[in-house]
Each structure stands twice: as C-alpha cells, then as structure tokens.
Design goal:
It is built from 5 helices and 8 strands; from the N terminus they run ααααβαβββββββ. The protein is of the alpha+beta class. The protein folds into 2 domains: 75 residues, no CATH class; 65 residues, no CATH class. Helix 2 packs antiparallel against helix 3 and helix 3 packs antiparallel against helix 4.
Length: 194
C-alpha cells in the first residue's frame, strides 16, 4: 500500500511542485477574475479550466501534451464552437494535397491541409448542426412541431442544446415537442420615416 508521501511524490513528479503551481495559478487568477464577470457562465468555466491547464504547463515538470489538448477543448466549449448534442459530422476534415500542391515547395513534407469550415446558409437560415446562435440571444428559430414548420422567437440556454421559446405559450404548445432546426438573427426594427 502506498503511503501519502509516496502519492504526493508521484504527483509532484508528474505535475510539478504544488506550491509553485499554486503561485502561478493564483497570479493568473488575479489577472482574470476582474474580467470574468462580463463572460457567460460556460465561458467563465472554460477560462477557469484553461488557466488551470496553463498553470500546469508553466509549472516545472507539467508540460504534457494532454494539457494543450484540454485547452483546445475548453476553448471550443467556452466559445460555443462545439455542441455535444449537435451533429457528429466534422466540417473541417483534412483533405489530401493535390499533385500541384505536393510538388510545390510551400508544403514540404506536409501531406494534408486543413480547410476552414464553411457555414452553409439557406436563404439566411443557418442550420443548428452547422452553427449555434450565441447563448441567451433572441433569434428567429425555424421549429419543427410534429412535421409542421413554425417560426418562433427563441433563445439558446446554457452551452447545450436547450432552447427557450418566447412565444410558445400563445400557441398552447408544449416545448418538449418543438425541435429547432435552423435560426437567423432577428431583423433590425423599422426606421422612422420622419
């Protein structure tokens, strides 16, 4: 059976000295805390976890590849770029180089190039599988209600795919039967002709 000291020694070997980590993390928190209030709750959590991982990277002995991978994951979650309930299809898969690109000196030994994702709009409507609207922002939502399409003012709640329907009660509908499929920003209000 391992002693407490043995466990602490293993942890320090893998993650660096705890006191050093605490000083680094505390310094990062001092800088970030005064700015965090302007972020949404999911963004605050993402920033918190990113700071934790940065402190581990900066701490001696804690520069592991998974820290960088975790930072990328938290950035995607906090920035609303990833929806765990959305489409499993990835829009930015590597594509093989063309013969011309392969022969070019620009790419050297590189065998693949990442193409940026393309946002597909259909008459101004954006599929929620391609991009979600900002959290807690009212948008027009194209909703499927048992095969019937209806446009409602909706707002995405939290970081997952939960929706708040501003006008659902006037139709006497249960929000559990409504599925948002597409969205677009609300139009600008009309301008006075005066």
């Amino acid at each position: 059976m391992k002693t407490t000291q043995h466990i602490l020694d293993e942890r320090e070997q893998q993650h660096g000295n705890y006191d050093s980590f605490a000083k680094i993390y505390g310094g990062l928190r001092k800088v970030s805390d005064s700015h965090a209030e302007k972020l949404t709750w999911p963004q605050q959590i993402a920033v918190e976890m990113i700071l934790f991982k940065i402190a581990r990277i900066l701490n001696n002995g804690a520069n592991h590849q998974d820290n960088y991978q975790d930072i990328a994951g938290y950035a995607m979650l906090g920035g609303g770029l990833y929806n765990p309930n959305g489409s499993a299809e990835v829009k930015a898969l590597p594509k093989p180089l063309t013969d011309e690109e392969r022969e070019s000196e620009l790419f050297g030994e590189v065998e693949q190039v990442i193409e940026p994702p393309t946002l597909v709009e259909n008459n101004g409507w954006i599929s929620i599988e391609d991009k979600l609207p900002p959290i807690e922002t009212d948008v027009l939502g194209l909703c499927d209600i048992s095969g019937m399409q209806l446009i409602l003012i909706v707002s995405r709640e939290l970081a997952d795919n939960e929706w708040y329907f501003l006008s659902v009660n006037q139709y006497g509908l249960d929000d559990d039967v409504i599925e948002v499929t597409h969205w677009q920003p609300l139009p600008e209000p009309p301008k006075d002709n005066q």
